[in-house]
Every structure is written in C-alpha cells, then in structure tokens.
Specification:
The protein is α/β, with parallel strands linked by helices. It has one domain (4-266): Vaccinia Virus protein VP39 (Rossmann fold, 3-Layer(aba) Sandwich). 29% of the residues lie in helices and 23% in strands. The protein has eight helices and eleven strands. The protein has helices at residues 4-20, 28-32, 40-46, 63-70, 82-95, 110-114, 134-144, 208-217, and strands at residues 53-57, 74-79, 101-104, 118-123, 145-156, 181-184, 200-203, 220-228, 240-241, 247-248, 259-266. Strands 3-2-1-4-5-11-8 form a seven-stranded mixed beta sheet, with helices on both faces. A two-stranded antiparallel ribbon has the order 6-7. Helix 4 links the parallel strand 1 (53-57) and strand 2. Helix 1 (4-20) runs parallel beside helix 5 (82-95). The two termini are 34 Å apart. The relative contact order is 0.15.
Length: 267
C-alpha cells in the first residue's frame, strides 16, 4: 500500500481537530471549569501519575493529555495532525497548564521525534484503528518506555466492529480482516452534521489477540487485560445511556465486551 492513506488521514484529522474543540461532544465548557475528560476506570487502573513523565500517543487536541497534567503528570502529547497539535498548545496556554508539551509526529516516528523515554505511555479511545501496523506500534511503545515504565491503553473492543450498527446483535463484518477499510463520509463521530471537505480516510481492524501478542513480542509484560461491558460512545442505536454518561446494551440481550483496557510494564 502507498502512503496515500497517510495523506488522506492527516487531512481528515487536520480538518476535524479545530471543529472538535467547539463540539458539544467534548463538553469543553465543563472541561475549562476543571472537569476531567478521563474515564474513572482509567484513573483507577493507571494509578498515581503525580510527578511522572507521561507521553500520550495520538493525543488529538490534548484534552486527555491535559487531564493527566491536572493529576500531576509531566505531560507530552503527540499527534500527526498539525491542526490538532496547534489546538492542544492553545488549550494548554489558555488553561495555564505549564510544562505541557505537544509534538507533531506520526506514531511510528515518535522515538526519533521525541528523543527520550517516559515513565508512562498512555493511549486513549478510538486510536488503534488508524494504525496499519500494530506490531510496529507495540515496538514504538516499548522503545518509548523507561525500564520499569508503564504502558496503559483504554480502547473500544474490536469485537464491536463486527456487529450491525442498528442493534449490535448480528455479525455483519469480519472479525479477522484481511484488508483495511476506506470510507468517504462527511461529519465525524462528534457531530455527523459538521460541514467537512476532507472525508476520505482509511482504517484497520486489529483483533484483541493481535494487540496483546504485539505488546508481548515487543518485550512488555501484561499486568492485566480487562474487558468492560460499558462504553462511552453510542456505537449502536439501541444502547442505553446511564446517569454517569456510560452506555450499556439493553437488558435481555447477551452481555458483550464494549471496551477493553491493558496495563503492561517494560522490564
């Protein structure tokens, strides 16, 4: 495959990052008032980050990155979209978060772009599907960690991608894909009515086995793999929203994992 996907995907996110900073989806008014954008289980599972050097891969416009900074971490965010990095830097300045650094780079070039290692490498929701090579990604994660450092990821469960969008009860797509998917659709998950021009993008589906195996092959030791029956995105039209902002499948349907989280360490 040529690098056309990278050009398309970068243009896709370059256009959407500034739009997302004013989207109701990200609840920016609450965030500016001090609310965290992190999910409670992420904070509990990663643990105390105060004083630790934390790198956030694929940080978008830096909301989660700055949430970790509010918990005391010395943060660096990395993203391949120039507009996202610009927005993250502006947000950090606006909020007065001193010491937050944002770097423009493709994930695969991160070790060279950063030139240092970190105590924690974190990555959040909806990121792995934008990466074509999960083995190379895992090696980058390992390269970026200090010995004894911690990697933590919270992500949408890949099994959810095989189910129909209406009810999430029928298998309609391959779980074991053999090629990426290219789509051309306006808007974004934050607002499907956003006026957008750069709408062509390519994504990949990685199985849970591939993700865990890649991290192990890169030399990381898995401390836990948790599968969660709630999600923070209404992926299916029949999901039920709870008071805490999470979504779950309707009562009476089989319980399925909607998200997963992994914590691993580098020896």
């Amino acid at each position: 495959m040529s690098d056309d996907w990278l050009i398309d995907n970068q243009a896709y996110w370059d256009e959407r990052a500034p739009l997302h900073t004013t989207s109701d989806f990200y609840a920016m008014a609450r965030f500016r008032e001090g609310a965290t954008s992190l999910r409670p289980f992420e904070i509990a599972e990663l643990g105390d980050v105060a004083g630790r050097r934390l790198l956030h891969l694929q940080c978008h416009f830096g909301q989660d990155t700055l949430s970790w900074a509010r918990l005391g971490a010395q943060v660096t965010g990395l993203d391949f979209a120039p507009a996202a990095v610009e927005a993250a830097r502006a947000l950090a300045t606006e909020l007065g978060v001193s010491g937050a650094r944002f770097v423009e780079s493709n994930v695969y070039d991160a070790p060279a772009a950063l030139g240092e290692r970190f105590d924690v490498v974190y990555t959040g929701l909806g990121v792995l599907g934008w990466l074509p090579d999960i083995d190379a990604w895992a090696r980058v994660v390992a390269d970026l960690l200090e010995p004894g450092g911690v990697f933590y990821i919270a992500e949408f469960h890949p099994f959810m991608g095989v189910l129909d969008d209406e009810t999430g009860t029928t298998v309609t797509r391959d779980y074991l894909p053999d090629k990426p998917t290219t789509f051309d659709e306006p808007g974004s998950y934050a607002d499907w009515h956003l006026p957008t021009v750069h709408n062509r993008a390519t994504v990949w589906r990685h199985t849970l086995g591939e993700i865990v195996s890649a991290l192990c092959a890169a030399g990381l030791r898995i401390e836990f793999l948790h599968e969660h029956q709630v999600t923070y995105f209404d992926q299916f039209y029949n999901l039920v929203r709870d008071e805490d902002g999470t979504f779950h499948r309707p009562d009476g349907l089989p319980r399925l994992p909607l998200m997963f989280s992994i914590r691993a360490t580098r020896s």
